[in-house]
Amino acid sequence: MSGYPDNPSGHMSGSARTRRADAQRNRERILQAARELVHEPGELKLHTVAKACGIGQGTLYRHFPTREDLLAEVYRREVEDLVAAAPRLLETHPPLDALAAWFDRVAAYARVKRDIFAAVEAATWQDLAAHSLGPIGAAVELLLAAGRSAGGVRADAEARDVIILISWLSRLDDTELDARGPRLLSILVNGLRAHHRD
């Protein structure tokens, strides 16, 4: 196969666009299946992911040559979705409500983080954690800054404080996360709330 486009103008033909769209759909299906299967007991197997998607193993390997490549991308996508949720929530909610709604999303992220970090090598999860800290911190600061500006969040609240506190969620198993997660996050929101004196 040559490296040239399908026609001399440099624009993709309809068949090339269809192939690209199919490839993107397959990639999304693979990521979604892996995100669900990583919660299952035992080691995640690539052939299990391929079977769950209804695709061949060759197709999966073209997108993700190794299990760690796949799990790293699932985690990166989870971080991207979490970070992108912050400005969207601020568009539709008052700042403190947006922060509380974002914390609900953090609980789902914590499950994925816990299971993926348990499934990959230490060097991989340390690298993933190092690269995700900045974007997540920026999302937290966006929410806190909006809350401070509106007078709803205490002036001394820092993104690092929140990161430290929510990091404990990924250490809880599913039973404890279901039982304690909402209450812990509610306590955190109340702790961030500005206390106005008359």
Structure description:
By secondary structure, the protein is an all-alpha fold. Helix content is 74%, strand content 0%. It is built from eight helices and no strands. The longest helix has 29 residues, at 122-150. It is globular, with a radius of gyration of 21 Å. The chain starts with 13 loop residues before the first helix and ends in a 6-residue tail after the last helix. The model is unreliable at 1-6 (pLDDT under 50).
H/E series, N to C?
HHHHHHHH
Secondary-structure class: mainly alpha
Low-confidence sequence ranges: 1-6
Q: Strand count, sense and closure of the main sheet?
A: none
Portion in strands:
under 5%
Supply the number of structural domains: 2
CATH-derived architecture of the largest domain? Orthogonal Bundle
Per the principal axes of the C-alpha atoms, what is the gross shape?
globular
Mean pLDDT: 87
CATH class of the largest domain: Mainly Alpha
What value does the Rg take, in angstroms? 21 Å
State the helical fraction. Answer: over 70%
How many DSSP E strands? Answer: 0
| CATH 4th-level superfamily of the largest domain | Tetracycline Repressor, domain 2
Distance between the termini: 75 Å
The count of helical stretches stands at: 8
CATH fold-level label of the largest domain: Tetracycline Repressor, domain 2
Protein name: TetR/AcrR family transcriptional regulator
DNA-binding region: 45-64
InterPro entries: Homeodomain-like_sf (IPR009057), HTH-type_TetR-like_transc_reg (IPR050109), HTH_TetR (IPR001647), Tet_transcr_reg_TetR-rel_C_sf (IPR036271), TetR_SbtR-like_C (IPR049445)
Pfam families: TetR_C_43 (PF21597), TetR_N (PF00440)
